[in-house]
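Sequence only, no structure available. Ideas?
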Amino acid sequence: MSSRTLGPGRLLCLTLAAFAVGTDDLLIAGLLPVIAQDLDVGMAAAGQLVTLFSITYAVAAPPLAVATARLPRRTLLLGALSLFALVNLVTALAPGYVTLMALRVCAALVAALITPVAFAMAAGLSAPERTGRAVGMVAAGLTVSLFLGVPAGTVLGAAFGWRAAFVAVAVFTGLVLLASAALLPSLPGSSQAGPREQLRALSRPAILFCVTGTVLGASCGFMTYTYIAPITVDLTGSSGVVLAPLIATIGVAGALGTLVCGRATDRWGADRVLLVTFVGMVATSVVLALLAPLTGGGLPAWALGGVLAVWGFAAWGFAAPMSARLLGLAGEAGTEALALNTGGLYVGTAVAGMVGGAVVASSGGAAVPVAAACVGFVALVVMALSVRRYPTAVPEPLAPQGSGT
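Reply:
I predicted one. Tokens follow.
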């Protein structure tokens, strides 16, 4: 294998790095009761650890990307993975809540380095006509972490305590580090003159349009996902017994969406696929909004699962074409643009939680898809304008599989 191509082993390393970050991000959400009890704090205080991680990541990712732009990509990724493993190991030893808060800030700072670099290396090592599927695979690592890594950590924490879950993340990250050190080739950093030029590239309207679309798209998607429990109760009249299968359905559909949309991006271009995913997300949100008045709360769980499968496919599918579009627009500032976009994803997640919570408190779970559809429609309009004003090139036909990638 050429030192500058993306083979399966190298792509798997980058995907698993993203998986580790995604798992660590939301791991505390499944461990709230045991953390609150062990540290003698309320559930709300324990929940703020998740918010703190997300806010830190969103704020830190862009400036960290600019500050480290000239560093070789492999060196930066290996260093960040080393720190990430160490921080999670120390987290397992945290004596109290304040220390745990500080360590979550440290974890978020390191995570803000890992994910953008993983995306950028996947794109940089792949052939141009295969960029979409490469970044789609890395995005799938984040998606699968929601539905595999976080539940696994929750089970481990319930059985052996919350500290064991962070030890597991540290060990897993260490294994990814060893594999990455063995398989990933060197890749130079940005050759741009300095931070001022990088910031100028990030402030271009074409980039800001995309990041705004990500914030709004993530708000639409995570609003429904975060409040899937009250939505399910209002639409089906059932709760716990059907909730786990529905979440699993969303997870499988979301993972397929990231992979399929990545391949579709390579064939039809990021712009077309991106708009299709946003249309699908808005359309299924509208369907969910109409189901409550049409069924009177008696919707069969299997029917809800079918709608959520299509919704999950689209809601998670937009990550790959959005990343590919940003890479095409940003040029040498690709890593920095991806960092800014990933920060936007976390902002959207936080907005989804706040808006969705207010909607549930005032109008119930059935009203959440209405709010999500409204936000999604605005996202669709923003991206339609973005694609029209700043189109990216349609890729050339795929090279034969034996072309070195």
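Residues 190 and 305 are 45 Å apart (CA to CA).
Hope that gets you unstuck.
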